[in-house]
Amino acid sequence: MDTIASLFSFITTPVSWVIVQFHSVYGALFGPDTGWAWGLSIVSLVILIRICLIPLFVKQIKATRAMQTLQPEMKKIQERYKNDKQRQSEEMMKLYKETGTNPLSSCLPILAQSPFFFALYHVLNAIASGDTIGVINQSLLQSAQKAHIVGAPLAAKFTDSASKVEALGASLTDVRVVTAIMIVMMSASQFFTQRQLMTKNVDTTVKTPFMQQQKMLMYVFPVMFAVFGINFPVGVLVYWLTTNVWTMGQQMYVIHNNPTPGSKAQASYLDRLTKHVTQHDKVSKRRDRAIVKAIVAKGRDRNEFERKFINGLSKAGLAAQADGTVIKSDTAAAAQAEDGTPTTAVGTPKRQQPKRQSKSQRQHGVAGGAKAADENEPKTSLTKSGEPEDAKPATAAKKGGAKPAGGTRSKAQSGQRKGPQRPKSPSKK
Q: 0.85 cut: is pTM over it?
């Protein structure tokens, strides 16, 4: 670790200068030789570095989402050229170039932060050895050696011997208890951050080896922090615990306000957005308008959560526009037609299902309908012109099994079967 830290010795002067400037401020409040003054100086250094790295963090998010989108294509390339590693690598690079994706972009914040981490380690190691470094002169060196964080010296390690810890004015038990607690907190924060990413902000529709690797890292990283943490000075543990907490909070903010499409976080976000928009009939925040604009632009490529969001707006009488705003829609599902008929989301009347009738109702309905139709038709006479209908012979109705008037079916008498009856043959006298 000392060899690696020495490689970044060129940045120890800027890091030590920033710590000294913060120490001058906190020393005036808490005292120059207190652990609060030196500990808060390290925390402030972390915050300053992470604020400067926010643009890289945004780029990391975009790169990670782009890599998730490319996983199906990458898997196809791996299966197609599984026996030709060189061609497989060329096709991968071609895919990255066409989509403008860089796999290293997801590691940019960690890579950019590493020089400051090792420079701080180099500064604290020099303080533990009693050597001046950067802008830390002899008086500042003595002040830093007197600083204790909850009983543990700023430059003490878990693996230090009892004599070395006593030389810094502390007991070995205090140092190991404090460093053990900080190592556990550091590993737990790293595990929670990675788990939060995998369970809430990952597109559940994509199942690729990349997801399995991320799940594996969720358990590997905390173990790595626990193993290497016993060799870190207390000041470095403060630095790394602070940056882990910052990363966790930053990620929670991103997941809450700008989740990955297709993830559980997006489903929760769109549910909250639907409630807000339906209550106020508008999209208030510019960030929300950007997300609504992106959803509208997708068209048929929307996932199930985005389709549910659009349908929810339609049911509330609203319609999302291409610029991310919403307007009231005259064809909402809650609206009704002029005759009071309930309408669907597109404004068309709902189809009414006819009620099922019993057999007797159907028979009476057919007969009644036919009778009503005959009553409405003009009556025509089969008799000669000018001959009254009453003069027709009575036997005319009996010839050839004539149908009853109005065309209705004759009702079955008792003991007879239903339906039209055969005409009886004339009786022989």
A: no
